[in-house]
Write a structure and sequence with these properties.
The structure is a single chain. The chain is α/β, with parallel strands linked by helices. A seven-stranded mixed sheet has the order 3-2-1-4-7-5-8, with helices on both faces. It has a two-stranded parallel sheet with strand order 6-9. Helix 6 links the parallel strand 2 and strand 3. Helix 9 packs across helix 18 and helix 13 packs antiparallel against helix 14.
Length: 505
């Protein structure tokens, strides 16, 4: 059966792709509308489904609280270690680390000079030998006239700081689409041609790190990265990922978008605790140039490059891929603009772009079927992660906020039954228990946020907790709605173009 399905996919690639795209958009709509329609015909089933989802959400909330707590403890423990000293003294690394070249690619287009300079400055403060670091300002040919003056200023400022600082201008050609994915691929291939082909640097000695312009690196990042790379059992089958927090400007943005930014950072901290098959790299991450070259770099026409390069590598390497956590905090910017309403719009558009990762679901499904050599249990980790992440993104708000009230409002007869009477009460009790997870997120955020100098005062301040009362509003406006728009666009073939998030200096 699997053989015939694979042959059908190969013989009808366009039809199969569009069918899976339509299905990826239909499923969240089915999940959202099912309680409304089903309440008239199968209210008991709807009620039990809602209770089951609430229990699942309680499990997910508890898991996030536990994993985030362990992640926070890992951050504190890792930050106390001198990783350069470890590199110099560990028998596994002391003769090897000086051969490692760390290349940092900063993909950018029309970004403010101050934002770029902040990124490069944080790299210049690394305790890893700077003569083993190469910075690549990966710019776009289409914006060369705007970006070249900024590149020249940065070259003058940092020309003697690193092993090298290089500027690339990515020309958009052929089937390429605009975005970080194609820019990364161009810059990485340029580095391979320069270092490996021209200067004969061993490709296995080159580590590639990609990031957005707003990234600010902890000063031990490249020391820790190099140590983990050299001590990894499979360094050429690994991504290396640190948790990211939007603390660069979190204190400036309106509270309506501050809470989702906090939840995103702490949630990702918790995700890094999971088994490797349930972790995906995101935004700023590292890998060997050898692995990148082997798997064929980033695809030139897939916008959500971070998850996709993980999935592409996973299937190319027959499932033999890990994501190694680096327990040091990277700081990035939350979406922000020149006024409140533009900031809301930017946050919505950023959420929509992130949710466009739903395009990976057809890719995962097709490769799930094709790669019979990968154990079913391992493939299910990737497939279930993609389905759970994207479909809960758009539909969870409706099930949590409205789910228990829908059957009782739409079906008065069911509301008078024992199950109908108890459904809202039981649902409310289960979801109230989820507040423990919210409390853990609040506490960890206070402990990690560098702008909260007086931690005790922040813990007892009423506004710390009052802003979370608007969580249903945040969840709808900046979670479910942009997610649902992206998935609906995919269903109708209205493909999303790349949009750079506006930065405020």
């Amino acid at each position: 059966m699997n053989k015939y399905i694979t042959e059908y996919i190969d013989y009808h690639p366009v039809r199969t792709q569009r069918g899976l795209e339509i299905l990826s958009g239909l499923i969240p709509w089915f999940i959202i509308l099912f309680p409304f329609v089903g309440s008239f015909f199968i209210p008991n089933i709807i009620a039990y489904a809602i209770i089951a989802f609430n229990i699942y959400w309680l499990y997910r909330s508890s898991q996030t609280a536990i994993n985030a707590t362990v992640g926070y403890l890992n951050l504190k423990a890792t930050g106390k270690i001198d990783w350069v000293y470890k590199l110099k003294t560990d028998p596994l690394t002391k003769t090897k680390f000086q051969k490692i070249i760390n290349v940092v690619m900063i993909a950018n287009v029309k970004e403010p000079l101050e934002i770029l300079d902040r990124n490069v400055h944080s790299i210049s403060k690394q305790n890893f030998p700077l003569k083993n670091i190469i910075v690549v300002l990966a710019m776009e040919e289409r914006a060369k006239e705007i970006d070249e003056p900024k590149a020249k200023k940065l070259l003058r400022k940092y020309k003697n700081v690193f092993r090298d600082i290089i500027v690339t201008y990515h020309p958009l050609v052929g089937v390429e689409t605009i975005g970080k994915h194609s820019n990364n691929a161009y810059a990485a291939k340029y580095i391979k041609n320069l270092l490996v082909d021209e200067f004969k640097t061993p490709i296995k000695n080159i580590l590639m790190t990609t990031c957005d312009s707003d990234t600010v690196w902890p000063n031990q990042y490249f020391s820790l990265l190099t140590y983990k790379f050299l001590t990894s059992q499979k360094p050429y089958n690994s991504f290396f990922q640190a948790p990211l927090f939007m603390y660069n400007n979190l204190h400036r943005i309106p509270f309506l978008v501050r809470v989702p930014a906090i939840m995103g950072g702490i949630g990702y901290l918790a995700m890094l605790q999971k088994a490797s098959g349930r972790v995906m790299n995101y935004s700023a991450y590292s890998e060997s140039l050898f692995m990148l070259d082997e798997v064929g770099y980033w695809d030139l026409d897939v916008i959500p490059e971070d998850w996709h390069i993980n999935l592409k590598s996973y299937f190319y390497l027959h499932g033999d891929l890990t994501v190694t956590p680096l327990w040091l905090p990277i700081h990035i910017d939350a979406a922000e603009s020149t006024n409140r309403w533009k900031t809301y719009k930017n946050t919505y558009e950023q959420g929509k772009r992130w949710a466009w990762g739903v395009v990976d679901i057809p890719y995962v499904v097709k490769n799930f079927i094709k790669h019979t050599e990968i154990p079913l249990s391992e493939k299910l980790k990737k497939l279930s992660l993609a389905l759970e992440w994207h479909f809960s993104w758009s539909s969870a708000w409706f099930l949590i906020t409205l789910g228990a009230t829908i059957p009782t409002i739409l079906n008065p007869v069911f509301a008078r039954t024992t199950l109908g009477y108890n459904l809202p009460r039981l649902s409310s009790f289960i979801l109230t228990l989820c507040l423990i997870g919210i409390l853990v997120i609040i506490v960890i955020d206070i402990l990690l946020d560098p702008h909260k100098k007086n931690k005790f005062l922040a813990l007892i301040h009423p506004l710390t907790y009052l802003q979370w009362l608007f969580l249903p509003v945040f969840g709808l406006l900046f979670g479910s709605l942009p997610g649902l728009e992206s998935q609906t666009r995919l269903m109708f073939g209205k493909y999303l173009g790349y949009r750079v998030t506006e930065k405020k200096v």
